[in-house]
TrEMBL record:
Keyword flag Transmembrane: yes
Keywords noted in UniProt: Cell membrane, Membrane, Transmembrane, Transmembrane helix
Record's protein name: UPF0056 membrane protein
Family membership: Belongs to the UPF0056 (MarC) family.
Organismal lineage: Bacteria, Pseudomonadati, Bacteroidota, Flavobacteriia, Flavobacteriales
Amino acid sequence: MEIFNDFSIKEIFTCFMVLFAVIDIIGSVPIVVGLQQKFGQIEAGKASITAGVIMIVFLFVGNKILKLIGVDVNSFAIAGAFVIFIIALEMILGIEINKTTEAKAASIVPIAFPLVAGAGTLTTTLSLRAEFHDINIILGIVLNTIFVYLVLKSAKWLENKMGEATLSILQKVFGIILLAISIKLFTANFAQLVQNYINF
């Protein structure tokens, strides 16, 4: 199949790491534990699969929506870079810029959406199309979905073992990685956008 001709371990790893940092499921462990206490047992399989499906569907449908409203992928990727930049600042500085509404149900809402497949994740997923092949992004999403499932299943155990201090350090480390990724995404797509206009 032609789609597998673009298969790249390096691209898959990069896509996985970008999405992993944006989703920040490790940093969300305290939230997950709180939801478990409030609503009872969370259906980890249902939540993770739903989140994965949302991301994959948006990967393809989102581009069609962009074409419909006349926005090119590079412009959207730059907008996505700003969103990722803000998420990174939240993680590094420990501030909350994007206020989330209070949860009324568990599993699909708010675990699958917006905790895992939120606005930042969906924007990032579509932004990745400007630089990476679809098959590698999909595999990056699948790997993250599996990881999300494992974390959801063992959220309470992870919180007890790692502690708040370790979770906070991890959040800041991934925040810095995410900050660097957002700058790279911005510069690469801005250069492409300028080149397109010059050629035009």
